[in-house]
Amino acid sequence: MDFTIILQAGIASGTVLLFATIGELFSERSGVLNLGVEGMMLIGAMSAFSTTIATGNPWLGVLVAMFFAGFISQIHAFIVITLQADQVVSGLSLTFLGAGISLVLGEGLSKAGTVSLLPNFSIPLLAKIPILGKIFFTDQSILVYIGYFLVPLAWYYINRTRPGLHLRAVGEYPSAADALGINVFRMRYFYVFIGGMLAGLAGATISLAVSPGWFSELTTGGQGWIAIGLVIFAQWDPIRAAVGAYAFGALRRLILDIQGPLLLLGLDNPFYYNPYLGFFLQMLPYLFTVAVLVIGSREAMRKRIGAPAALGNPYIRGERGK
Amino acid sequence: MTNQTSSTSEAPLIVEMRGIVKRFPGVLANDHVNFELKRGEIHGLLGENGAGKSTLMNVLAGLYRQEAGTILVNGEPKVFSSPRDAIKAGIGMVHQHFMLVPSQTVTENILLGLDDPRFIMRLPEYDSKIAELGERFGLKVDPRAKIWQLSVGEQQRVEILKMLYRGVDVLIMDEPTAVLAPQEIEGLFETLRAMIAQGKSVIFISHKLQEVSAIADRVSVLRKGVATASGVASKGVSRQELARLMVGRDVIFALDKKPGNPGEIVLDVRDVYTDNDKGLPALRGLSLNVRAGEIVGVAGVAGNGQSELSQVISGMRQCKQGQVILAGDEVSNHSTLFGIQHGMAYVPEDRTHVGSAPNLSITDNVIMKKYRKPPILKNGLLDMKAATKLANELKHAYDIIVPNVSTPVRLLSGGNLQRVILAREISGLPSFMVAVQPTRGLDVGAIEGVHRLLLAQREAGAAVLLVSEELEELLSLSDRVYVIYEGKIMGEVMVKGEGHDEALVDTIGQMMTGTPLDQIQKEGVAANG
Amino acid sequence: MAESTALNKKRSPFRIRIEPRLSEPPAWYPAAVSFVALIVALILGGVLISFAGGDPIRSYQHIAKASFGDIGVLSDTIVKATPIILAALACSVAFRMKLWNIGAEGQFIMGAFGASAIVLAPILPSETPRIIFIPVMMIAGMAAGAVWGFIPGYLKAKFNVNEIISTLMLNYVAVAWMNFWIFGVWTEGGFQMSPKFPNTAWLPRLLEYAKTFPAFRGLTTHLGLVIGIVAAVILWFIIFRSRWGYEIRLIGDNPHAAQYAGINIKQNIIWVMMLSGALAGLGGMSEVSGVVHRLQTAPLAAGYGFTGIIVAWLAKLNPLVIIVASILFGALILAGREIQPSGVPKMIQGIILVCLIASDFMLRYQIVIDRGEE
Lengths: 322, 529, 374
What we know:
By secondary structure, chain B is of the alpha/beta class.
């Protein structure tokens, strides 16, 4: 097995998780938990694919995906920010809604399309770096390179800019932000929108770059949920999110590509001899997510830091205490 | 233009509020209130909890929008749709509960909400700007420290700096001394005077008569949403008069407390060490005891370990060292259930978040300690008829005013909720009760009711530990008072007789700021000798 | 909520304001609100159906006819509702403690697996009389589901791992697990299903009594319905009349108060997750023994766990109301299979949930019409 090829594909697969994770990260940093990522990704994947088929322009597909998913996410925003309903259940219903809408509207889309995809290319100099060049900079979709930029951009935005300061304040201690004139509600709507857009982008990345086509719910295969778990693992930091996302992407590819009679170092490949064991491989990403959660939660408990303090709670202004 | 605090009679009005009306669901918080502030004065706004003074100032600070009435700043009518507008007009508020983001630094908190820096933040520049500002007003604080690392007094300084950085002329202080010890209060007063000297004006909200008389030039009083006094010179009015304006009748400062007859030691706290939620030591070798038939008070500035002490006693927190012994049995480091089964009652300081289940009915709340045994538990199932009967009995006995006992508890007023909790705890006929801040946020009638219940417990022979930030309350109810400071007991004093004992208050005040009792006594002897 | 400025000389005729309720709404109010939310959801669903090219009126008519039109389809509706009842009961008990068990799907599947293992391993020979077979399968199904609930419960109690994600991940693991046994171990001649169960392992169905009651001919309603109803009644007693139920409700409402009352929250997390898993597992057993009669992925991993979430929410977590709501959803799923486009039932479920959540707002706030200032 050629590990560099697997890792190369893993980076592409990880980019999907990256977009979704960072999107959810922004939303949660502002204090809003959005469990509808899976649904938003499905909407993104479906609309990107169908728009591209209809118009022949994959970039238009990406745009439509992002805005459609962002728009749907505003339903969740309205319910939890303005109507102050429970964020958990609302997010779940968004998943159903997103899945359902994408199934309904995606009815009849050809399963694996010959559709103009987004361009793949290599970065000239960097591709020559031994091993790493092959993995990171050779023949990757343009979305992957966009992903590379997104990580430091997100980090810098959150930690070194004024709007980022406000974002953090809104998620940690919204009354302080409110008292100083920051519109907590507007900011939360905005960052939920960003989260939805990035989830839509993640979906588009699947259907237009990584695994082109529309396969109903199998398109995302639970990656939206893995992304939510990754946010916890990332301790709400974009750099850690990237590490987790790419690691997971590599894992998924590894699982798919275990072939050939020999595994590694001359060991027999059990999956070659008994293909049904492959089902256990399928379990791995999900078990790993749980493991990642355990690690992340223990860390949070140990360091006494963790989620943005106001995460999950609606902001009610001017509560008269008893 | 420097203004001395006494010569403000001809000073121009910097703020005028006319006919302010503010409603909340079910309550008329401000009923056509007028208020004016002269430039360069310290104006005290007095009133008991719930009188409407915070509401009035929240309107002035732009947090609330009034239903009717006008606000004039320097003679111009202003409409504030948000705190930003008020700050732009030069009015800023330092809240009682600080609005600071704990995980961010001083500088970040001060810069929050401002348009400058535009996009990219270069913190070191601003760090030095803020340090300078602090020097100018005598408010020393490290701009790079994170808020959670600062003491309460330092956090208050950050809040003040926040407003000064925005160039406000009028500073509204909402119950600023609630978190300070007597000596720190003097420091605050000096800061306020320094700000007046620099041309600012201050509104000082408080329910503490003595402080307001001491610091304010003029005083306004609110009672139940109505202004009963407006801008009276503070020197010209007595404490009794102010009290009457606040509550509408003479406030009796002493309750009907029969002489005590303490029995055996019921609660024995021995050398307890424990940490708080942040992992820092909260109790450092604390010892105290309570006997049957007495009320023992614990005085101290908030944040010196009172919460952790009551949590250790009730079993909600483990202690690392030491023991808590209740009637001979060790209850420390056992579950709360163990304490309950040994006759412990606990009235927590947070009624809504700890002491009750908001969406469950009064009945469900009242059986919280009784549901494991008959008569509530019958044949393994809950006998709801018996539970409802009990709830109705308690409703009558404790004057809980509700249409019926299946009402969810979140709809009750503070006073009623506290009555439910007390009913639950007391009806278990406890041998020992720890009550933490039992009258916080209650109106005068409810406070009186709670005090009477506590005294009744004392007479019935229970041992009561009363933890409170209200020194008046402690002095009128307790037989003995311990003073806690930074997790240790500074000393213990007896409370004898009625009336206001200045020397006792002074001693307690010194202990509250860290001077152990024996040192005070030594200094007292030295001073007199 | 912005209010108009009060430069008081302006007199507005009247203003509509939204404020928190200060008293409990009348008892019929929550049910009425839910009902209205349901209607709104159906209307919205109709709009989306027509947007996607279908005919909403015809779709709904079809649903009504295909589920309640005659005794035959009514029976089919009940068959579809039976697993939903148990899944919804599972969700409701967990949700009462604010444990977001999204893993009812996986626990359901593991329950089906556990029950099947008794038949297929085999643990009991196929000649075993029904009266022994069925109860053993029930116990196995509940035990397997309970184990699957125990895992996330333990992780939450010990490590504070978010149960939403852990239960969800275990769903996928459960499907893979079941597939392994279906494809790799118990496969029937290379097809993607296990051998058919012997008759002694089938839950009794109404049509078996057609000789005595001719009206029962062809009706596939099975004992699972009785199991579900009995479970609902027992659960009602547990939640509202037992010590444990009181503790569950208290923890769900305010964990601090529960701790203060001396209740051990961590233990309860584990026990409640196990109970929840057991109920879902029982649902899996009911489905595999009453309907499918073999271990097969598609009919068992059909989303009952997720539907259970919605039904539990719709029923406001009340076990008895769950029975009724499950029948409604059973109808939706049954009829929805024939509707084009095929994603419609799922979408409608999502819309219903969204409308229900939004409608909760009306329970906490009220609309006040104000006739201006004096």
